[in-house]
TrEMBL record:
Designated name of the protein: Fe-S cluster biogenesis protein NfuA
Xref: InterPro entries: FSCA_dom_sf, NIF_FeS_clus_asmbl_NifU_C
Similarity field: Belongs to the NifU family.
Positions of the NIF system FeS cluster assembly NifU C-terminal domain: 7-73
Coiled coil: none
Gene Ontology MF, one: iron-sulfur cluster binding
A single BP term in Gene Ontology: iron-sulfur cluster assembly
Amino acid sequence: MELLEQVEQALETIRPYLKADGGDVAVEEITTDNVVKLKLLGNCGSCKMSFMTMKAGIEQAIMKAVPQITGVEAINLTESV
């Protein structure tokens, strides 16, 4: 199975939670060193808690399901903690 497919499958496990809050996420690219670059959509792009959602939810789900992934970044995450 292709890396992108594996990442998408991992995202499907958390998408219902994101959508429940009016948000979503899209894979922009997977770099040559296996870093997933995501775009946070809807409320996820502007929510104050999106950094925590990104780290505790999205990143964890992807890295647990796809061990080859070395990192997960949101390209449009402006909130820093």
